[in-house]
Design goal:
There is one protein chain. By secondary structure, the chain is an alpha/beta fold. β6 and β7 form a beta hairpin. The chain is globular, with a radius of gyration of 18 Å. The relative contact order is 0.13. The model has no long low-confidence stretch (mean pLDDT 95). It binds S-adenosyl-L-homocysteine. S-adenosyl-L-homocysteine (SAH) binds next to β2 and α7.
Length: 250
């Protein structure tokens, strides 16, 4: 009883924060987020999924944060999206719940995370989610994934040029990549600009905003894909991180 009471409070906070972000979810969608919160808290006791354990923080810093591109009109219904290095499903799971006719592929190299994501998909009944287990550098070379998505998203995946090398190959020409970053991103932009150009993209915008109800500053880096990514990218597993692309470009 006490637990249900508490998660209702959190869901009120979530609904209010979404509203102030301009996102209006219906009751079945809020119910899905509540189930996700409960599964995350439960599974996190056994496997390490998130360092944030306070439910009210999870709803703001994981759920609402994940929805920021929707609030800014950057992702919409009907499109295909890949979340590269999704971990416990962020930002991909909240996006899939909020956009039920979008198709969302969740990619991660960790098998433990895949087990959790699979349980969530079944438990919540998310029919628009596909799981992709493996390294981004390898999966991006497969025909079924290469330049196949309208959008790629990534949060907490690494330096901007590393993120771009691992994500841009998945994006169709005419699509976009969205990197979720903190306020420190401005120091990475020069790496990002070089890398974007090399990989067939252009950084079109950097959006700064506060997470609703907090003083936490977040940024979204938007990269438009203007031409195909050269076939030599991404390089072999581990190389994008070990020898970041911007360090090699003049
Ligand atoms: N996006 C999530 C998780 C970030 S942690 C969030 O913001 O909460 C980074 C995740 O990326 C980890 O789960 C790790 O397993 C995965 N990862 C790191 N490098 C990867 C690679 N090259 N290919 C696929 N997954 C990778």
């Amino acid at each position: 009883m006490a637990k249900a009471f508490r998660s209702n409070d959190e869901m009120e906070l979530f609904r209010a924060a979404c509203c102030s972000f301009g996102i209006h979810l219906n009751t079945p969608q809020v119910e899905k987020f509540k189930m996700l919160l409960e599964m995350l808290l439960d599974w996190n006791k056994r496997i390490s999924l998130t360092a944030i354990t306070e439910p009210s923080k999870i709803v703001i810093e994981h759920f609402v944060d994940s929805l920021a591109p929707i609030a800014h009109g950057l992702l919409s219904e009907g499109i295909s999206i890949i979340d590269v290095g999704t971990g416990a499903g962020f930002p991909g799971l909240p996006i899939a719940i909020a956009l039920p006719t979008a198709f969302v592929a969740l990619l991660d190299a960790s098998r433990k995370k895949m087990t959790f994501l699979s349980a969530v998909r079944e438990g919540i009944g998310l029919t628009n989610v596909e799981l992709c287990h493996g390294r981004a550098e390898e999966l991006a070379r497969r025909h079924e994934h290469r330049e196949s998505y309208d959008a790629a998203v990534a949060r907490a995946f690494g330096r901007l040029d590393v993120v771009l090398e691992c994500c841009m190959p998945f994006v169709k020409v005419g699509g976009r990549m969205i990197a979720y970053k903190g306020p420190g991103v401005f120091e990475e932009l020069r790496f990002g600009e070089k890398a974007a150009m090399e990989l067939g993209g252009i950084i079109s915008n950097v959006l700064e905003f506060f997470l609703p109800t907090t003083d936490i500053k977040r940024t979204l880096v938007i990269v438009e894909k203007v031409k195909p990514t050269p076939p030599r990218y991404p390089r072999r597993v581990g190389v994008p991180q070990k020898r970041p692309i911007a360090n090699l470009l003049k």
